[in-house]
């Protein structure tokens, strides 16, 4: 599925940027017996329903013409939301200094399956999280998901992005 995501991203990224948005992510998911192609867009002002409709209208024909996806699927255009999944290096690097939740596939050598703290560092093999005044180095291969955590009054820089 990652291959489809990359192909779709390469296909629509420039078009989305040309109409004033950032392509934040592309996810091709199987939910129950249905497939969903989720296009996640962003911009500095935030994303409205009208923005999602505009992008949907601009990319539908491009996707149909390319015909990368042979299965029947639902196209969904959305914002990344206030708590954002961080799946790519550029996303992780953008949120260094922010509060994040890191979920692991299984408990690690520290006995944790989840870390909540400040994202301090990102490299090819690991993330460093400051949790309870301790820095933890977490191997990326053990991470199932990373997302930002929104708390009122914290992450003030979020609204300025």
Summary of the model, kept short:
The chain is α+β, with helices and mostly antiparallel strands and 161 residues long. It is built from three helices and eight strands, in the order αββαβαβββββ. It has helices at residues 2-18, 49-66, 89-94; strands at 22-31, 34-42, 73-78, 99-104, 114-122, 126-131, 134-139, 143-148.
Question: Can you offer a commentary on this structure?
Answer:
By secondary structure, the protein is of the alpha+beta class. Helices cover 25% and strands 36% of the residues. It contains three helices and eight strands, in the order αββαβαβββββ. The protein has a five-stranded antiparallel beta sheet. A three-stranded mixed beta sheet has the order 1-2-3. A hairpin with a 3-residue loop joins strand 5 and strand 6 (126-131). Helix 1 crosses helix 2 (49-66). Mean pLDDT is 92; it is low at 155-161.
Key words describing this protein structure:
alpha+beta; disordered C terminus; 36% strand; globular; 161 residues; five-stranded antiparallel sheet
Distance between the termini: 30 Å
Could you give the count of β-strands?
Answer: 8
**Order of strands in the sheet with the most strands?**
7-6-5-4-8
Number of helices: 3
Listing every helix as H and every strand as E from the N terminus to the C terminus, the arrangement reads HEEHEHEEEEE
> Beta fraction of the residues?
35-45%
Largest sheet: 5 strands, antiparallel
Percentage of residues in helical conformation? 25-40%
* Low-pLDDT regions: 155-161
């Amino acid at each position: 599925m990652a291959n489809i995501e990359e192909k779709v991203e390469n296909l629509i990224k420039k078009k989305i940027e040309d109409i004033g948005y950032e392509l934040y992510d592309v996810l091709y998911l199987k939910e129950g017996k249905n497939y969903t192609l989720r296009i996640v867009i962003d911009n500095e002002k935030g994303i409205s329903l009208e923005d999602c409709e505009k992008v949907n209208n601009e990319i539908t024909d491009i996707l149909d013409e390319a015909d990368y996806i042979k299965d029947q699927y639902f196209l969904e255009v959305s914002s990344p939301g206030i708590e954002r999944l961080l799946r790519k290096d550029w996303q992780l690097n953008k949120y260094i200094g922010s509060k994040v939740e890191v979920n692991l596939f299984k408990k690690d050598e520290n006995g944790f399956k989840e870390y909540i703290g400040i994202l301090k560092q990102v490299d090819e093999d690991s993330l460093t999280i400051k949790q309870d005044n301790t820095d933890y180095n977490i191997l990326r291969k053990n991470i199932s998901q990373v997302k930002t955590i929104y708390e009122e009054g914290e992450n003030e820089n979020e609204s300025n992005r």
